[in-house]
């Protein structure tokens, strides 16, 4: 009788990591876990349970794969910050270098109130349920926007506009305030002293802003946005407009289907459209012009070439005008902006 060959088990990346974690000693495994963020710890821990029945042959396959990938790696990662800062300072002087670095340094997803990383949205919302809206705003601003939007939705509806407004207006948070909030979380979660968390910052922490508030609201359900924005407009029209502008940019128009995009274009004059398209890449330009007749599209292209270089402010002004037209058409129900509401009954 011939034996039926068993296909080797296929492991995902995290399962391969889990097998390796099961092979190293507890001290080494703990040291590795300390380098991971909370979500990575959860995924790796789940995978470690999933690979408990791994065979000796499968372990060898994982090890061979790991060794092979290790040999292939030739890049050496490093923190470019100090090098870039040194070069900029030497070339431009301290003041100019600091100005440039403030604009080009990638933003870090840092959570000063780091205990929040280890809680899910429901736990955080339960903790904030009876707290002052300002405390809620600071806490939510510390979260990843995807989690922050979930927490916002779980809080009482009456407080949501106020909390979002406070997030948009947040500024520097003093180290003492951050420490006080960290202690509050530790007491609510039974975590004891929170002094070992973020280590205490010596400078104020910059949080929030209209763009951050927009990210949080974008992650929420469409019905939440439709409920919160009108109330926010009554509270502070300027802040509401800033959030609205940050939530929807010109590139979002490309998410419209051909029919909707065609309807929008027919409501925009050629001069405005030509100026707006000067600020997009060729793929986006083709997508928009593709919803027009060949003759009309050719006319827009000729007009754009005849204009030559344009000021960025003029391009952005034209794009904002088209975005406003799109919003008006959406309010009338003529077109549908975004992916649509995700609430079902």
What can you see in these coordinates?
Pfam families: FliG_C, FliG_M, FliG_N. Its main location: other. Belongs to the FliG family. Residues 122-187 form the Flagellar motor switch protein FliG middle domain. The chain is mostly helical. It folds into three domains: 13-72, no CATH class; 114-243, Flagellar motor switch protein FliG, alpha-alpha superhelical domain (Annexin V, domain 1, Orthogonal Bundle); 250-331, Orthogonal Bundle (Annexin V, domain 1), CATH 1.10.220.30. 63% of the residues lie in helices and 1% in strands. The chain has 19 helices and two strands. The protein has helices at 13-23, 26-33, 38-50, 56-72, 81-92, 94-104, 121-128, 133-141, 145-154, 160-169, 175-189, 210-219, 222-235, 237-247, 258-266, 270-277, 282-289, 294-307, 312-331; strands at 172-173, 205-206. A two-stranded antiparallel ribbon has the order 1-2.
Short description:
Belongs to the FliG family. The protein has 345 residues and is mainly α. It is built from 19 helices and two strands.
Notable characteristics:
single chain; 345 residues; mainly alpha; Annexin V, domain 1; 3 domains; two-stranded antiparallel sheet; 19 helices; 1% strand; disordered C terminus
Q: Output the structural class.
A: mainly alpha
Number of helices: 19
Any idea what the CATH architecture of the largest domain is? Orthogonal Bundle
Order of helices and strands: HHHHHHHHHHEHEHHHHHHHH
- Briefly, what CATH class of the largest domain? Mainly Alpha
The low-confidence runs, each spanning 5 or more residues with pLDDT under 50, are 107-112, 193-202, 339-345
Beta-strand segment tally: 2
How much helix, percentage-wise, in residues?
55-70%
Question: In CATH terms, what is the fold-level topology of the largest domain?
Answer: Annexin V, domain 1
Q: Terminal Cα separation, in Å?
A: 58 Å
Residue fraction in strands: under 5%
List the domain count as a whole number.
3
């Amino acid at each position: 009788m011939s034996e039926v060959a068993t296909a080797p088990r296929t492991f995902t990346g995290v399962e391969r990591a889990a097998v390796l974690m099961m092979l190293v000693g507890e001290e080494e495994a703990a040291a590795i876990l300390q380098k991971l963020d909370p979500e990575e710890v959860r995924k790796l821990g789940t995978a470690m349970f999933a690979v408990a029945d791994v065979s000796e042959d499968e372990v060898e396959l994982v090890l061979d794969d790991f060794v092979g990938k290790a040999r292939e790696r030739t890049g050496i990662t490093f923190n470019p910050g100090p090098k870039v800062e040194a070069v900029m300072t030497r070339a431009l002087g301290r003041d100019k270098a600091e100005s440039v670095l403030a604009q080009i340094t990638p933003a870090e997803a840092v959570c000063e109130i780091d205990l929040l990383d280890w809680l899910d949205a429901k736990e955080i919302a339960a903790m904030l349920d009876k707290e002052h809206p300002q405390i809620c705003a600071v806490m939510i601003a510390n979260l990843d926007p995807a989690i922050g939007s979930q927490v916002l939705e779980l809080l009482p509806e009456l407080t949501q506009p106020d909390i979002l407004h406070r997030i948009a207006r947040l500024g520097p948070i003093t180290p003492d305030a951050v420490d006080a909030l960290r202690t509050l979380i530790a007491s609510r979660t039974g975590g004891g002293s929170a002094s070992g968390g973020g280590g205490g910052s010596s400078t104020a922490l910059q949080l929030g802003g209209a763009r951050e508030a927009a990210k949080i609201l974008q992650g929420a359900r469409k019905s939440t946005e439709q409920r919160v924005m009108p109330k926010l407009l009554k509270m502070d029209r300027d802040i509401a407009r800033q959030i609205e502008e940050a939530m929807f940019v010109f590139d979002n128009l490309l998410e419209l289907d051909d029919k909707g995009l065609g309807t929008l274009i027919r409501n925009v004059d050629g001069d405005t459209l030509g100026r707006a398209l000067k600020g997009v890449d060729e793929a986006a330009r083709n997508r928009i012009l593709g919803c027009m007749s060949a003759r009309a599209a050719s006319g827009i292209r000729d007009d754009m070439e005849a204009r030559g270089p344009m000021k960025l402010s003029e391009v952005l002004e034209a794009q904002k005008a088209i975005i406003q037209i799109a919003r008006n058409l959406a309010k009338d129900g003529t077109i549908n902006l975004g992916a649509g509401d995700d609430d079902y009954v």
